[in-house]
Structure formats: structure tokens, C-alpha cells
């Protein structure tokens, strides 16, 4: 069965359609190939800033309220998100109004007024303040480990930008960024739900077909791996817990080891997986612990996050390091591997019922050149053996590739003890 259809307009804009005739709604997502890694340090956060500014009104809907009310009249609530490589705009629509929805998205992306910049700047600064302490120091573990793993590279910068970069952005900067990156060949529109391929194509062609195409620049390649770890960064924060992140740089999403990394994340993360069973249920060290896998085109990050009482820091770290060494040395048991593979496959099957998930997945995949169907992803995972998964862990969970962030009320004695343990971990 075809999981989705792809069409390309004459100007290069791509359309992905997922027909789900049993539903009573349609999800429309517009993916744009620009994010944090396409920025320079002095313009850090401009993709995210521009995403906000597009909602401030268009030539057709002169205020943000008018624009959002127009989406709501079609049954939707428009929203957006920016990450390291992409920006996406999305809304649910009534199936009778797909054409009107496409026209609204075209107005949003093509005819923005970019007004009220100072008001939006204040909002973004407030958002950025969530990631710093009262002294203005970074406390977001994701940002802290990224700086260690990708130093002096756009991937090391927070997607929201820095206080100085956000304060320095002008309307001319935003307009130039819009004109550079928002062009048909760099946009994929994905439509999923009670809509036919013909309906989606007619609607999107009418809204976007006269958009003139331009070429876009290339992103800066990922820097070479440092292999100098474990590297650690410490930031004091007036909280009751120490937030800890362990992160490994891993290959990008096209790498042959990616399916094994997906299983390793599930071996560690979940209510009945190793992190929660050992750290919470058996030892009572944390309320929640999880592993995450973030993949870019040519690099990625495998991370583990948890928060513990200061008195539990060393024990929790010891347990984590031992868990990682166990993954490198010993294949998962047959029952455990079967469980995580089955859960992975079921998760993919469940997404077949979710229009937003399918529009997001297939549209994003088409945009970044990673059009992996659900069936193919399941086949890749099901083909893995426990020994193959162990071999990937042994190769990629190398202590020399490890970066750690500690945020919270630690003291000098705790820091010294942790650093001594990390030095021994490399041996």
C-alpha cells in the first residue's frame, strides 16, 4: 500500500499527500529547510525570530489576530516550531476547506508584513530567559552539551539565539533571511487526512504555483569529532536538584548505524526500560530519566537526561556509566530485544492513525532527503541482532566522545569527585 504520494509543482515546491479517508479532519504542514545550523553567531536565532514574526500579520490579514482568526474559522489553530535544520508551520483544517487553508499558509509564508518587531523581540527575550539563571548563565543542558560537542559551529548555538544576537536583529535582517530561504524549492507542503491527492494538488498549486524560485545556500558541514572526552561543563543554579545530561556525538540519520541507535534509545528509555527500572524503581534516585536521539543530516546526538538530589549525584553517575559500559560489552537478552523491537513497530503502526504524525514525518523526510517509509524503518529495526546493537554501542558510546552537563546546587567536593570518576572512566 502506498504510504504517501509526492508531487512537484513547476516552481520546485513539493507536495506530500497522505490519504486517510476515514478521518474527519486534515492536517496541513509547511516545512521550510532553514534552522539554527544555517545561521552565523551574530544572527543566532534569526530563523526562530522570523517564525514568530510571520504570525504578526500579512498583506491579506494585516494583524496577527486576523490571521489566526482566519485559521480558526477553518477549524484549525496554526502553530510553528524551529529546530536545527528546519522550520515547520502546521494547522488542522476541516476537510471542506483545504483550499482556503493552503491559501492561508501561502499568505503566511509569502506575504508577511514583518511588523511589530520590538514587541516580538520582547517575547523572544522572555522565552530565552527560561534557559539562563539569575546571573545570565546558560542552564539548559541541551545547549551546554552542544557547545562541547560542536564548538564554534552554528549547531552549538541555542535555536532561540542569544540575548545579544536577538537584540541586534533588524527588519532588514529578517527580510533578507525570508527572501533567502523561503523559496519553493526549499519548501515541502504535507497534507494528511480526509483529502485526495487531486484535491491537495489543486489547492497547493493554486496557492503556491506562482511563487518564483531561487537557489538557497548550503549549510556549514558538521565539524570533525573531538574525541577528547569526557568533557564536562558545570553551571550553578538555585534549584533543589542537579540536572545531569550525558551526551554522545553520533553519525547523522543516513548512517547505517542509525537503526541500532533507535533501539538503544528504547533499551534505555521507557517505564520498563533500564534507566527507569534501575534508577527509579530499584534505587529511588530520580523521578524520571530518559534517553533521546536527535539526528541531523551529517551528525547527531544521543543523550540521557535526569535530575537528582545533590547527595545522590555520584551514585546516579556511577550507575549511568556502568549502564553504558554494559551496553558496550553485553548484548541485550532475547526477551528485552524482542520487547523493544515490538514496541518500536507498534509505535510506527499507531502513527498510521495520526494525521499530524504522518504529515510531519513524510513532509520532513522529503524536505531533508530522508524519505523513509514506516514499513522500511520497521524492516531495518527488525533485521538487527542483539550482537549488532551491542557492536554499535561499543563503537559510538566511547568515553572519549562523551560530553556532560551538570546544572544545579553542587559543591566543590562533589565536582572534584565526579571529575575524578570521569577521568577513570576513560581507562
The overall average pLDDT, rounded, is 96
Number of helices: 16
CA radius of gyration: 23 Å
Could you tell me the number of beta strands? 11
Low-confidence stretches: none
Order of helices and strands: EEEHHEEHHHHHEHEEHHEEHHHHHEH
Helix/sheet category: alpha+beta
N-to-C span: 51 Å
Question: Approximately what portion of the residues adopt beta-strand conformation?
Answer: 15-25%
Strand numbers in spatial order across the main sheet: 1-2-6-3-5-4
Largest sheet at a glance? 6 strands, mixed
Outline, from the CA principal axes?
globular
Please give the share of residues in helix: 40-55%
Description:
By secondary structure, the chain is of the alpha+beta class. The chain contains 16 helices and eleven strands. Helix 1 packs across helix 7 and helix 9 packs across helix 15. The protein is globular, with a radius of gyration of 23 Å. The protein starts with a strand and ends with a helix.
